[in-house]
Design brief:
The complex is a heterodimer of chains A (115) and B (113).
Chain A lengths: L4 E3 L2 E4 L5 E6 L6 E8 L3 E9 L2 E5 L6 E5 L5 E5 L8 E8 L10 E2 L3 E5 L1
Parallel strand pairs in A: 2-11
Antiparallel strand pairs in A: 1-3, 3-8, 4-5, 4-9, 5-6, 7-8, 9-10, 9-11
Chain B lengths: L3 E4 L2 E5 L4 E7 L6 E7 L6 E7 L4 E4 L2 E6 L4 E6 L8 E8 L7 E3 L3 E6 L1
Parallel strand pairs in B: 2-11
Antiparallel strand pairs in B: 1-3, 3-8, 4-5, 4-9, 6-7, 7-8, 9-10, 9-11
Chain lengths: 115, 113
Amino acid sequence: KAGVTQTPRYLIKTRGQQVTLSCSPISGHRSVSWYQQTPGQGLQFLFEYFSETQRNKGNFPGRFSGRQFSNSRSEMNVSTLELGDSALYLCASSLGTGAARDEQYFGPGTRLTVT
Amino acid sequence: GENVEQHPSTLSVQEGDSAVIKCTYSDSASNYFPWYKQELGKRPQLIIDIRSNVGEKKDQRIAVTLNKTAKHFSLHITETQPEDSAVYFCAASSPGGYSTLTFGKGTMLLVSP
């Protein structure tokens, strides 16, 4: 079974621009969660989508948004980029329901650099 | 919301020694506690997990223990090897039926040959 994939793997953007990142979950997984990883803050939860609905949201400004498609693929968007948005963005997929709903498997991440 | 504290932040051991990493959580309703290993430049990998109805779980050289009363859980690695060197993260599930994890800040484990 193929693992979680993310595109692109690397991005360099300028302050004020916007960016869209993509995540394809493991086949059969209906939940996609997004995390921001930085050296100082570790792994911080952004939001979780399940069956095209945002089910939970972390403490990030409204510039961070996401969506999920009917095939469970998910995108996250960051508008008006700031230098502090430079980070590794990881998505994780899980079944989303049942006893193993919260077993999450991570993608390789997208390294975003804002200059 | 849930808060997870992890200690130590760095841990250096000699090959063959045991390593223990400890985490505490704040929400007594959390019921799922995974551990992830992240090697440099790679994705976090799920290495072991435990649910709140179990006190201990083992998988070869790694084990996890859970004390629900004290709200802490620990990762134990025995007979450490240089390839165990990585950053280890503990996490706790978010109550409410969501697939959300709150992570500790991580422990950098260095195993010297």
